[in-house]
């Protein structure tokens, strides 16, 4: 399983378009693009639209409890929860060998200048999996404006830039598809 995700619940004073509608949207879009292109990877691509992230990650904990017996089947868990602004790369948590493979995958994104691999992945919703050794990835992007809108009434659709969201979806699509279509899973 290659899991892509974002969370649906928003902070109570805003619409949650950036936190985290954008992450949910690019995860949905990644799988939609792969399907529309007629691509069929070797492994399952799974979209999870988390709930309860803003209330302490209760949705993620429940999902983990229900699926942890199959942890060896999870290749990578990916979460976008820091906005969907101009992307720069991925945060990655995993073995050195897996990191090298992810760096190679990121070279495919050179045409859109999104190739960086940062030292760790963040994500309330994927933390349980990463703690137990499943490689994890989080979208990294220009967060200069993130806290202008984070948990505020300003977190509306007007914050979202369609071009930047398309670039974020491209990153999510390429990374998730390539990992799902590799001969072997990422090394733990």
From TrEMBL:
It comes from Vireo altiloquus (Black-whiskered vireo). One of its GO terms (cellular component) is Golgi apparatus. The gene is Cpq. One of its GO terms (molecular function) is metal ion binding. Keywords: Carboxypeptidase, Endoplasmic reticulum, Glycoprotein, Golgi apparatus, Hydrolase, Lysosome, Metal-binding, Metalloprotease, Protease, Secreted, Signal, Zinc, Zymogen. Pfam families: Peptidase_M28. SUPFAM superfamilies: Zn-dependent exopeptidases. It is found in: Endoplasmic reticulum; Golgi apparatus; Lysosome; Secreted. Residues 1-172 form the Peptidase M28 domain. Homodimer. The monomeric form is inactive while the homodimer is active. InterPro entries: CPQ, Peptidase_M28. GO terms for biological process: peptide catabolic process; proteolysis; thyroid hormone generation. This is Carboxypeptidase Q.
